[in-house]
Design a protein that fits this description.
This protein has about 70 residues and is mostly helical. It has three helices and two strands, in the order ββααα.
């Protein structure tokens, strides 16, 4: 049995936008920060409801999806 995803999509929260579990922070926001050259710490400072573990787990999930598509 796998672990529970840190990414959830609920139509009642931001219209189903994938967010970090237990927050209203879209996962895309983390990707936008990193794309802009900001650090993970800068993202976490601005979104304290997201734990470091959750952010890393979301990145690992995204990586796994990309690798499994090869």
């Amino acid at each position: 049995m796998g672990r529970e995803s840190v990414i959830v999509s609920d139509p009642e929260i931001l219209g189903g936008t994938p967010c970090f579990r237990g927050t209203r922070v879209p996962v895309e926001t983390l990707l936008d920060y990193l794309e802009a050259g900001d650090t993970l710490d800068e993202f976490l400072d601005n979104f304290p409801s997201v734990s470091r573990e959750a952010a890393i787990a979301a990145l690992e999930e995204a990586k796994a999806l990309l690798i499994n598509r090869r």
